[in-house]
């Protein structure tokens, strides 16, 4: 990071420690003034309050993916299966693009995204927030069934949220778990290969891990009911033995430690 400019102040080179601290404050919503981030000669402006429900990180992930040169563009959607597409709200608002892709159904899983073309497509709108307390797991079955019905109707589904990196990505992974019989570690890696900008939050990844071993009964957020699924059941999770860094985080490691303790 070359520097920050807050509220129109002159750009200045800041110490890395300050810049990182400022990034965390803005991402957490503690700083609301307009912020301009500079990467080389490129800049972007944002205000945390413009994203009141946690989608700030979604939007920043989308911008960073474009800056870093990923193939996904603001208006793109990626083909996951011949009848399943994963994208963002820009793609969902592009009528020409939707028709060109043969989309017949749209699964909107973002609370702040509107239904753009109610007379043109079949919709499922799950008003989910991108924050750690969101009970994502209890909605995954409904979304999976919607996708499955579209398949049997010879339709095509766009699953989207704001940026197409967290909520909607988890829905597509859950569909592969439930209807394609993939283990979570395989389903997650498959979707990430198809859409490299995919980056679900730690909370949502943990809920996916619980969902793999407990669906369809899981309905509680992991953060409030951490031990609600018995360790003996969770031992069957495909991600416990994964070396993918996406599955290396504190909450899941607690289960790994418990699993090792049971074997001693």
UniProtKB/TrEMBL annotation:
Its EC number is 3.1.3.48. Residues 76-217 form the Tyrosine-protein phosphatase domain. InterPro entries: Dual-sp_phosphatase_cat-dom, Prot-tyrosine_phosphatase-like, Tyr_Pase_AS, Tyr_Pase_cat, Tyr_Pase_dom, TYR_PHOSPHATASE_DUAL_dom. One of its GO terms (biological process) is negative regulation of MAPK cascade. CDD domains: DSP (cd14498). PANTHER family: DUAL SPECIFICITY PROTEIN PHOSPHATASE, TYROSINE-PROTEIN PHOSPHATASE DOMAIN-CONTAINING PROTEIN. This is protein-tyrosine-phosphatase. It comes from Aphanomyces invadans.
């Amino acid at each position: 990071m070359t520097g920050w400019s807050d509220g129109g102040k002159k750009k200045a080179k800041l110490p890395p420690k300050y810049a990182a601290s400022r990034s965390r404050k803005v991402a957490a919503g503690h700083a609301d003034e307009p912020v301009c981030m500079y990467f080389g000669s490129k800049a972007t402006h944002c205000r945390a309050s413009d994203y009141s429900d946690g989608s700030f990180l979604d939007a920043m992930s989308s911008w960073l993916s474009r800056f870093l040169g990923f193939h996904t563009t603001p208006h793109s959607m990626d083909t996951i299966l011949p009848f399943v597409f994963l994208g963002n709200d820009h793609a969902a608002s592009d009528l020409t693009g939707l028709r060109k892709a043969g989309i017949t159904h749209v699964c909107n899983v973002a609370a702040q995204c509107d239904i753009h073309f109610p007379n043109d497509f079949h919709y499922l709108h799950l008003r989910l927030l991108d924050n750690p307390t969101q009970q994502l797991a209890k909605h995954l079955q409904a979304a999976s069934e919607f996708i499955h019905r579209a398949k049997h109707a010879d339709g095509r589904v766009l699953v989207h949220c704001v940026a197409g990196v967290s909520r909607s990505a988890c829905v597509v992974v859950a569909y592969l778990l439930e209807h394609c019989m993939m283990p979570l570690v395989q389903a997650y890696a498959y979707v990430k290969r198809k859409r490299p900008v995919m980056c679900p939050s730690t909370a949502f990844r943990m809920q996916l891990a619980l969902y793999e071993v407990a669906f369809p009964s899981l309905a509680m957020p992991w953060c409030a009911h951490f031990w609600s699924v018995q360790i003996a059941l969770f031992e069957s999770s495909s991600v416990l033995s994964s070396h993918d860094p996406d599955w290396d985080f504190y909450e899941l490691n607690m289960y790994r430690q418990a699993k090792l303790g049971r074997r001693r």
